[in-house]
Every structure is written in C-alpha cells, then in structure tokens.
Amino acid sequence: MSKIVSAAEAVARIADGAVVTVSSSSALGCPDAVLKALGERFDAEGHPRDLTTLHPIAAGDMYGVKGVDHIAKDGLLKRILGGSYPSGSSNLPMPEIWKMIVENRVLAYNVPSGIMFDMHRDVAARRPGVLTRVGLDTFVDPIRQGCAMNEVAAAEPIVFRQEFGGQTWLHFPNITPNVAIIRATTADEDGNLTYEHEGAYLGGLDQAIATRNHRGLVIAQVKRVTASGSLRPHDVHVPGHLVDLVVVAPDQRQTTETDYDPAISGQIMRPWSSFSLAEHGVEKIIARRAALELRRGQTANLGFGISAMVPRILLEAGEPQAVTWAIEQGAVGGMPLTGFAFGCASNAYGYVPSPNQFSYFQGGGFDMSFLSFLEVDVQGNVNVSKLGKKPYLTAGCGGFVDITANARKIVFSGFFEAAAEFDLSENGLRISKPGKFTKMVEEVEHVTFSGARAVETGQEAIYITERCVIRLTPEGLVATEIMPGIEPARDIVAASQGRVKVAENAITMPKSLLVEGPMELAL
C-alpha cells in the first residue's frame, strides 16, 4: 500500500480531539500544504474539532506562509502550545492565531522551545514528564504566569513547581501527540526522508518518534519522491518506519520569501565578499560594542534584533570565521542570516537537530550569548516575550529562556529609549530629540530573563545601548562605559528616572566604534 497520498487524504486521518505536533520554524521547514488542507477540511466538514497543537518553534510567518493561521479557527483549535508564534510588522494585519489568543478563544501557552523538545523526548521514552530548572523565576514559572498567554489558559495550568533532591524544579506533565506533521526535501517510496534542500533538521525526528511510540500518525510533507532504495542511508534523517503518509508539495518554500538558496542548505559555499555589511548607524555602533566582548575561538549563540548584526561586524573586520556561531534552528558556524532568512546560516560547518542544540544551550556549553531586549527593569529582568498593546510584534520567548538559563555570559543589546533621535558623528553621539519613553523600567511586563536569579547564580549580564554599557550588579544596573557625546546625568540617570546609576570609575567608550570604515577588532 503506497504511502504517497494527497494532503486532503492525509488530514482525513486526523480525529477529533487529537494532539498534533508540527515541525517548523516560521517558514523554515513549514509543512504549509498539510496545514492548509487541514483548515480546508474543517471548513468543509466541521471536523476535526478540538485539536491541541504543539509547535516547538513557530509555524508560518506573516509574509506568505500562513502556517498555523490555516488552522486558527473556532471549533478546530482548542489549545495551542508554542515556543514562538508568527510575528511581524505593525503595518501588517494581526495573524488569526493572535486574534484567537487575545480574545480568549483558544487556550494558549508560550513554552520555551527547548522545553517543548524535552517534552517530546520524555513522552517518547514514557518518562513522567519534563523536570527542569529552566524557566525558574521567569514567566514560565507558576509563581508568575506559568506559560499562560491568556485568561482561559491560566485556568488550566500545564506546569507545576516540584521539590526534588533539595531543589525547586518545574514539572511539565506529558502531553502525548497523536499526530506529527513534519517536513523534508525528499522521500522514497518507503517514506525514508532526506533534508538536502532544508536549512535545518529542526525537531522532526524527535516529534515522529514521540508520536510513533504512542501508535500515532506521522505525516511528512516533501518536495519530491524518489524510488525505493535510491537514497544513501547516511543521508536519511527520518527513517521510513517512522513515517505513515507522504504528501508531495513541489512548491514548498525553503524559508520566508526564499524559494531555494543552496547556500542555506550547505550545497554551495558563498564567497565572504558576497555578504552585505551592516549599514552605518546607531544599531551598528551597538553591535560593534557587543562584538568587543568576543575572543578568537569562542562559540557564541545569537538571537534576533540588533544582536544578529554582530557576525557582520566580524565580517567587516576581516574575521568572519574567528568565532563559531550556534543558532537554535541547528546551524553551526558560517554566517547567520538576517531579515527574512533569520534562523538560517550560509557556509555553516554543520547542522545539529534542534533538540540536541537545545541540550547544548540548556547546559551552558557555549561561551556567551548575544540577545536583544524590549525592556529592562531595576532588577535586571529582561522582557522580549510580551507586548501588551501589540502582542504580535513579538514572537514570544522562542529559545531565549533555554539559552539564558545557564549561560555563563549574556550580552543584551537594545535602545535606551523608544524612538529617540540622534546626531551621529565620528566624534560622538548626541540626543537631538528624547525618546517617547525609556526602556529602563521599574518592572518589566514579562520576565523572560531573571536578573535576580542571574545575580544569585553568578551569571554575567551586560546590557549594551547607544548611550552606555550597563552591568548587572547586586546593587542594580550600573553604567560602566559612556558613549562619547552623552551627558550621563541627563541622558542616562534622568532619562531612566534614576533606575540606572553611573559608576564613579565609568570610562568613555572608544571613538573607533563611531567610524564609518572598518573597525579593528582585537580578538
């Protein structure tokens, strides 16, 4: 009996009340054709109903790959757990899934991506759920929001505090998937899957194992089919005995607004000269100062926002391979991409499945992490996961909580104020118009990183802004380096309403950060 079926035939096998796990990272690896067919079946039949969906990383984007929005329908979707959610520009309409969340029409939870992959591994091995210290004293912790994104979710908790071995842990009881929807490039007639055009493996293998171990249904969307036995065994990432049905979608995109780029999947290596440099401006100056924290031979993690510019600073300095970058989707080394291709890398040394990458992150095996912030409070807490006024402008926590839980050193980057205007020259930076509000707040809206826990465990946390470098101390936030042209009393202390102090021995940041040409890096 052939495993090759249409998308409609595949989703016809999904029952009411099923738990469906989906492998994706925005548009990277998104099985969009199968999700579209699932939404269309519900529109035509009113079934399946009351699904729970699991998304370790977001499914779909706001730029042409709908992903989860295909199934964001009342009656179809009852509960959703996502490491992240589709996000984008305020100029675009709010995604349907976000409308359901803010209107309390679906139980919605934001669970760190690494923990979500842990959940699949533990349910696969029939262990009693995830026991972890990742997320303590953040919004993940039941003493705060317990991952709940709305009121209906808060009424049905999914995580509990547990005392074990003299320590406090977070316990996530098992949620067993009945269906897995994953994606690859090629399937043979037996369902063996290879990923040669993909920019990452993501977590499809673990999701398939978790589902198959509980006698569930595994659906794989692929670009093409080849004859049985024609795939090299070493190229097969998900073997056919784990795959029930194969859906062919020849037009599947590699990632957001990218049909296919062979450098993303490692099939060619781009010349370093082909990568664009960071445009000169205030964001580049922040990224330059962040890059000064690096040393040759280190391994660093990278997040979205200003931090994503740091590899381009090394590129401009002629040192593109001085540091090994590791990103949560799985690429290791090379040049992490920005913009629509964020989450991919060109010229990568290798690709690690996301669950393994998160084990590396959660254990703090890397040297430092470069991340961004939306706001920082007096305790050093950071929020990147919630914006109450326009929630879909942030994707949620993604891997941020997993990465920061045990990182030895974290370099956060962002603007001191929102929408301030600057006069920038090679001699200094001056505030020509104050911002609408400070990002240095009394209390963050959402605790994605716990400053108090960082102080307790001895983590090094640095916050780099266009005005100063701030360090987290037991006494609070202290500016230790000042940008040339900045008046500390006015532009830092007063602008933060006294929440950031200036160290008595604060130094001036080097003017080399401000030059338009390449900046030398002493790696």
Task: Characterise this structure.
Helices cover about 20% and strands about 25% of the residues. The protein is an alpha/beta fold and about 525 residues long. It has two domains: about 5-125 and about 140-155 and about 175-250, 3-Layer(aba) Sandwich (Glutaconate Coenzyme A-transferase), CATH 3.40.1080; about 280-515, 3-Layer(aba) Sandwich (Glutaconate Coenzyme A-transferase). The protein has an eight-stranded parallel sheet, with helices on both faces. An eight-stranded mixed sheet has the order 17-16-22-25-31-32-33-34. The radius of gyration is 23 Å and the shape is globular.
Would you summarize the structure shown here?
By secondary structure, this protein is α/β, with parallel strands linked by helices.
- How far apart are the first and last residues' alpha carbons, in Å? 59 Å
Biggest sheet overview: 8 strands, parallel
**What share of the residues does DSSP label as strand, in percent?**
25-35%
| Level-1 CATH class name of the largest domain | Alpha Beta
Rounded radius of gyration (Å): 23 Å
Structural class: alpha/beta
CATH architecture of the largest domain: 3-Layer(aba) Sandwich
CATH overall fold name of the largest domain: Glutaconate Coenzyme A-transferase
Output the number of helix runs. Answer: 12
* Global mean pLDDT: 97
**What does the overall shape look like?**
globular
Task: Look at the structure and name the CATH superfamily of the largest domain.
Answer: Glutaconate Coenzyme A-transferase
Number of domains: 2
| Strand line-up in the sheet with most strands | 1-15-12-9-2-3-4-5
